[in-house]
């Protein structure tokens, strides 16, 4: 599928590219000479991320490289060959790393709550690949809904006021994790994915069970419910996350703010 077809025929793709470009600039995600490893799970979020970054790469006023890496957890349902064929058709620089993820989940008795261990295993392989390929940044496909859900989960579990940052240090500052889709809603990505005809690789065999019992899916549904009472609740949460008022919180480290930050209404992080 040619780049010109993506850009000129589908305005929703161009709109997402503009918003991602703005977020990349706002949060200083990309710089000249960056070697970016893109975590490509095969889901619509990561595929959209790769398409958008490839598009921006050709238009950026500086140079950065992209390397797509898929961590194959050896799930029987995962169509690695189909994903590889899609990447080849796009002309992407792609490779896969296979680990016995299914057996590790069984050995650790983590099949009922697989997400945490699965995420750690995947992330560890991505960091190892970044080291091997000399990549200084890892781009992940989490979008706005993911950030909202992570914020609510941390809040409800007493884990602090935090979410998935758009540009955070990793491995002692040796590399950074970036999330260029951080301002893009899942609905926008899903609508685009239907038009781009992504391959159905089915990377998670636990998806149906997680949709019935998983915490993240529950909070995703909660966002939809909140939308009926609070229109554009995701955008409102995004604005709130961009406007942290330290003096209005209960963290005693910020009890004695000095200078301009001593004003509660001006106290921003």
Helix/strand order: HHEHEHEHHEHEEHHHH
The DSSP helix count reads 11
CATH level-1 class of the largest domain: Alpha Beta
Structural class: alpha/beta
Low-confidence stretches: none
CATH topology of the largest domain, by name, is Rossmann fold
**Any idea what the shape is?**
globular
Radius of gyration: 19 Å
Total beta strands: 6
Strand content: 5-15%
Q: Describe the biggest sheet?
A: 6 strands, mixed
Q: What is the level-2 CATH architecture name of the largest domain?
A: 3-Layer(aba) Sandwich
Write out the CATH superfamily name of the largest domain: HUPs
Domain unit count? 2
The overall pLDDT, averaged over residues, is 88
Helix content: 40-55%
| Beginning-to-end CA distance, first to last residue | 43 Å
What spatial order of strands do you see in the largest sheet?
Answer: 3-2-1-4-6-5
Written description of the protein model:
With 269 residues, the chain is an alpha/beta fold. It has two domains: 3-216, Rossmann fold; 230-269, no CATH class. Helices cover 48% and strands 11% of the residues. It is built from eleven helices and six strands. The chain has helices at 3-9, 11-26, 44-57, 80-90, 101-107, 115-132, 144-156, 186-196, 207-213, 215-229, 233-241, and strands spanning 35-39, 65-72, 94-98, 137-139, 167-170, 175-178. It has a six-stranded mixed β-sheet, with helices on both faces. α3 (44-57) links the parallel β1 (35-39) and β2 (65-72). The longest helix has 18 residues, at 115-132. The termini are far apart. 28% of the residues are buried. The model has no long low-confidence stretch (mean pLDDT 88).
């Amino acid at each position: 599928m040619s780049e010109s077809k993506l850009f000129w025929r589908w305005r929703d793709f161009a709109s997402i590219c503009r918003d991602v470009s703005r977020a990349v600039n706002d949060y200083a995600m990309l710089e000249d000479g960056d070697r970016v490893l893109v975590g490509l799970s095969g889901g619509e979020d990561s595929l959209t991320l790769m398409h958008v970054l490839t598009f921006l790469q050709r238009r950026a006023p500086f140079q950065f490289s992209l390397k797509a890496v898929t961590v194959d957890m050896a799930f029987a349902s995962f169509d690695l060959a189909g994903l590889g064929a899609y990447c080849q058709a796009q002309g992407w620089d792609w490779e896969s790393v296979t680990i016995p993820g299914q057996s590790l989940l069984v050995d650790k008795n983590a099949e009922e709550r697989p997400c945490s261990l699965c995420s750690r295993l995947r992330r560890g392989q991505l960091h190892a690949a970044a080291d091997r390929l000399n990549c200084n940044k890892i781009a992940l496909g989490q979008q706005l809904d993911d950030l909202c859900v992570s914020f609510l989960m941390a809040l409800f579990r007493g884990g602090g006021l935090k979410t998935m940052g758009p540009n955070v240090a990793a491995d002692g500052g040796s590399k950074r994790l970036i999330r260029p889709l951080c301002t893009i809603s899942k609905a926008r990505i899903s609508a685009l994915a239907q038009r781009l005809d992504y391959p159905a690789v089915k990377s998670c065999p636990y998806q149906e069970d997680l949709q019935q019992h998983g915490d993240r899916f529950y909070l995703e549904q909660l966002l939809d419910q909140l939308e009926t009472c609070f229109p554009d609740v995701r955008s409102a949460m995004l604005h709130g996350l961009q406007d942290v008022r330290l003096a209005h919180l209960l963290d005693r480290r910020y009890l004695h703010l000095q200078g301009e930050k001593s004003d509660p209404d001006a106290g921003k992080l």
